[in-house]
Model the fold of this input.
Amino acid sequence: MLRPLPGLAMVRRAMPSPIAPDARPVLRLLPGHHRRVRTGYPWAFSNEIAMTPAARALPPGSVVRLEGDDGVAQGAWHFNPHSLIAARRLDADPDAAIDAGWCAARLAAALRLRERLFPGSAHYRLVHAEADGLPGLVIDRYGDALALQANTAGMEALTPALVEALAGLLAPRVVVARNDAGVRTLEGLPDEKRLLLGTDPVAEVEEGPLRIPVDLLAGQKTGWFFDQRENRARVAQLAPGARVLDAYCHLGGFGLRCAANGAESVTLLDRSEPALALALEAAARNGLAPRVRAERGEAFAVLERLGAAGERFDVVVCDPPAFVKSRKDHAAGLRGYGKMVRLAAPLVAPGGFLFVASCSHHVSPGEFAEQVLWGLGRAGRDSRVLFQGGAAPDHPLHPLLPESAYLKAVLLHLP
Done:
């Protein structure tokens, strides 16, 4: 549903009045449940908090003062009585004013880090949730365009203040809400995609030598997968003179980087016709069209058909969407990764390279590695691991939330 907000004045009018810190609701942790919170752990679960009738009646997204059972304050937190992760730390100061000024300070700190990581660039993940002190919030930057994803009731409530702060900090042309992540259902939030500021959601991402159009309303997630930036550059180093297959290509990030670095030919494979159309448009814009072709289809079926036809590539990339979206999908999703590698490995020419990745939160690095080895074994291919890693540095990891390190990536040489 598209509901444009034409200007910042409307955003300001929509902002709720902040609750004065001295009137802030106080919640207590149950006895024995303060230890993790004291060490800086950014979450408190519903079974760790005294869920009194008053607590249960608080609106989702309320800012609360959280205390141990001893009465010692543990900071200011967003609270949702209906979520398993009931409280998320905002500030160590229990009396901090959580308003546009507070948002501006957190956003400015995140911006300073990205400017150090990517000097001269305005294309990156600007905010990565808890690691940037803004729990449940993701913001991707595309020059003068921003895609914002509020994955908690607290950040949903704080969105007007965030937009005001972003307007003051970056003066963006457009801010788009991409609130369609599955985790929002756990917070009782609806899916929505809408304009928060400005009118034109089309932007352009700059990566290496490429300029690629992205539609921040119609594309996947927040438009572009910045998390694979370093991995795309790593694979592109292997591309000069190579035949490249980019499976699950979305907008063709891996394949187009390879083409720009001298690949002989690139085949882009995806089931989405709109994504392939944008990828081919990007190839044409960047002068790569003669060496780039697209194939639409389900990856498993196409990989199997290419293998049966004896097709071989010097570089094969498999970067699929999450196969394991919830714990109930775990066993089937793991088998899917093994099958993917089993079908992809025969397509790699002797001496070529295979890059595979998983963005499934519920799959551990060890489990993914086991499935990669299983698939290689079933395909009868020897291998050597050249690289194992995760997301780019604009996706920092909160040190007390290792489970949030969702991306697993492996680059293999197949003799």
In short: The chain has eleven helices and 19 strands. The longest helix spans residues 100-117.
